[in-house]
Amino acid sequence: MPEAATHLGSGKVRELYALDDDRLLLVASDRISTFDVVLPTDIPDKGRVLTGLSAFWFARTRDIVPNHLVALRADGRSMECRRLTMLPIECVVRGYLAGSGWKDYRTTGSVCGHSLPRGLLESAELPQPIFTPSTKAESGHDENIDRERAAELVGRDRFEEVERVSLDLYRFAAAYARQRGIIVADTKFELGLDEQGRLVLADEAFTPDSSRFWPADEYEAGGPQPSFDKQYARDYCESLRWDKTYPGPELPEDVVAGTRARYVEAFERLTGLAFDAYLADPEVVLR
User: Fold this and answer.
1) pLDDT score, position 36
2) pTM above the 0.85 mark?
């Protein structure tokens, strides 16, 4: 780490440093969290998958919205980024009925104020993608909110821009991924504003941590789907008598290996690159 870098904070997965007044350094660790608890066991190379995939998507979505990426570091897990003023909402887009969206639908027949057809199955494809924002919780879980509450938080005009950009990003990436055998069931973004007040995509984009990736050739609505994300580790934790509070359980070697394999496979399918090629030259994802 450069001596000039000042540590600003730690997230569940990332470390944030200040390089100067204009640039930040975002470092993705190999930590994994389930149920909002960081587990004591790392997943080797997980941080590099997150950074490499984010950079890959940043390079391909610049025509939809600018992003914060300035440069990739040679370690494959660090990004130099522009400083932004972050919006106070998580920008979530759902193309399929899963997770908290499925739970809300079973209770109310709607998701974040979007009324949906009756009789949909778990994991069903929605008639069209929907924007379902949530709050950013300082602790605990984010809370799903409707369009009116989100508009109160960011302003009506800004909300409409955020919704449009989020849906455009999702449609682009979902179509791209589907051609490579992956369904992007849902995803979330962090958006911020630059000094000119322009909307900018930040943090990460279309990674196994921020998205549900399902293998298209195994998809069948009516229940949970196999996935390329941390669901494999989450399922193991669910099988234990763990109350989902700190400290989390250690992961056995086979769960670590299986989780890493799923992250790497998602990277290779989506980018069309061998993961070893990325490790040798991280900037290959930008070309």
Assistant:
1) 85
2) yes
